[in-house]
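Changelog note: in this version the structure field was regenerated for every chain. One regenerated record is shown below for reference.
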Amino acid sequence: MVKRAAPRRRPRKAKPGTKGLAPADCLLDQPGGVAADTVEAIQKAGGCLIGSYKDPLGGHPVLLSILPIDAVEPTPFQRDLSDAHHKRLADVINKTGRFLDPIIAVVAPERGFWTPNGRHRLEAMRRLGARSIAALVVADREIAWQILALNTEKAHNLKERSSEVIRIYRGLVEEDAKRPESQFAFYLDEAALVTLGVCYERAPRFGGGAYHPILRRLETFTDEPLRTALKDHEKHATMVLELE
């Protein structure tokens, strides 16, 4: 019998001033552990570390860095680039003559860096011919999935949300297909979006809105390995598309 994942629960509102670090506690003189390895990766790529600190909420190390722009690529599983948006950004950055909104970056699996939150800023800077870009580099690559989950919630319509979720899912399978699907319920939002994402991959003009309410009630994340669970979603997608 398949074990179902527990439903997502949103945290309650905390009392003001009861969580996180005080300003002085955010000082980080010398990054250690995985953060030290990340500093080495920054320097190896031709970048430089400007400063480091502990983030004020969770105390995790953050590395303020300048990276060669050619060493940074968007994660391969996020939404498509908006040509109009990145051109508008380039115009604004060019007028101010300043880049004041650092991208977030993690060390990529093979070489260089990925940005899960900064694709349009990255392309805007490339359009302007920039050689370098400011980045908040995070040592834990898992943060890339978490940030993409936030972007999924901001997607404008069901097709965009589903397409981003299936891209994230396939990226997770490539990382480690043996991990249980339920471990990533937070990142993927709804199990139904995985199935709908497969449908949109196969049929871009698929009318997912008609099936979404039903799939939301029928599908939940399971403790099956990602690769096995993906096959189940693909089977469900085949059944749904046969109804079209």
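Spot check on this record: The mean pLDDT is 89. The two ends are 30 Å apart (CA to CA).
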